[in-house]
Amino acid sequence: MAEAVNTTTWVTLLCDVRRTGGQGQWPGRAPERVLWQLRLEDSVRSSPVLAGDLLYITCLDGALHAIDVHSGREAWKSETGSGIHSTPAICANKVLFGNDSGQVFAVDRTTGQKLWAVSTGAEVWTSPVVFGGTVFFGSADGYFYAAALSTGKVQWTFRSGARIYSTAYAEEHRVYFGCSNRKVYCLDSGSGEVVWTAESGDGIESSPALADGAVLIGSEDFSLYALDAASGIIRWKYSTGLGISSSPAVANRTVLAGSKDGFLYALDLSSGRLNWKVQISNVIMASPVISEGVVCIQAFRGETLALDTATGQTIWRAQLGMSVQSCPVLTKSAIYLADIEGMVYALE
To answer: Which residues on adjacent β-strands are paired with residue 56?
Structure first.
């Protein structure tokens, strides 16, 4: 069996805490073959993450699975007793993730041993975000949490009053996230106090990115917003044909996001002007990831496509399984991805 050689780390949603989406990783060529594939026991609704020689992926079977990238064999799994929609996040020796019973876990990334757990009042589908020794996450119980990375002790909570499915973006002194009550929140990361709120026309499941002093986020009101990070004032918004749960990625002053109308949109970061749009499938729920002049997106019908970021022209496509919200992990030598049927692939 061929080996997949890891040359990068991909520790959270869209690669890193800055959501760069994998820039500078996969060289843009079409993958030539499947190095290995592994079937998990249930559907995968999250995205894989990567550190060292292990690929980490959560599954509706209730477990976090650690897969050896060289062999494609499972190194270990950590059971939680409930289905998992949350994309894992890696920080130092810990892997963090939530589950459908409302718990957030920290496990040892080498052994899978549970280190701590925090309980909330409803499912946690968001991915935990770590910044400055604090873990931030929202829950469907309507609360947003800040917990100590070392112990899991809750430092503060903020009550939004509505379900939170948007993975937060954290930076120095601020944390941003969307909510099903139509609002985008900016909180003080040390205290949980509200700095500002901005309102859209419908609920928000998209996870924000931050670039050029703007918070970029999609809404079910069919629009992608650029909000001033300091004030929450709308800089621009761009309307698509349906709701946007896809989380935007940014490269070379271009904002890329998918819509449930099936189109992938490329917008100018400063003005919101449309550079191009391409219909990928009937619906897009996955988030785009960016490589060397290439944007990769997984379509609902089971394709992974790569398009030129400047023009939207298709460079290559790979037909594997039925993907939904999963984002591929890009390295310089391999692409790792998962589908709704529970299949995990390494492509070379």
So the answer is: 49, 66
Candidates 217, 197, 196; CA nearest to 207 is 217
- If DSSP codes are grouped into helix, strand and coil, which group holds residue 289? strand
Domain region containing 291: 34-347
Bridge partners of 32, per DSSP, are none
Cβ atoms of residues 118 and 101 within 8 Å? no
Total number of domains constituting the chain: 1
Name every residue whose Cβ is closer than 8 Å to that of residue 207 and which is 6 or more positions away in sequence.
13, 19, 126, 127, 166, 167, 168, 169, 177, 178, 217, 247, 287
Q: Are 164 and 142 in contact (CB under 8 A)?
A: yes
In a domain, 13, yes or no: no
Running DSSP on this structure, what letter comes out for residue 19?
A: -
Q: Is residue 160 situated within a structural domain?
A: yes
- Asked if 207 contacts 89 with a C-beta cutoff of 8 angstroms, the reply is no
Residue 9 counted as domain residue: no
pLDDT tens digits, one per residue of 12-57? 676 666 665 655 566 567 788 899 999 999 999 999 999 989 999 9
Tens-place pLDDT, residues 181-200: 999 999 999 999 999 999 99
CB-CB contact of 316 with 307 (8 Å): no
- Whole-model pTM over 0.90: yes
Q: Cα dihedral sign for 250, 251, 255, 259?
A: negative
- Does the residue 134 lie in any domain? yes
CATH number for position 239: 2.130.10.10
What does 243-268 look like in DSSP terms, one character per residue?
A: ---SPPEEETTEEEEE-TTSEEEEEE
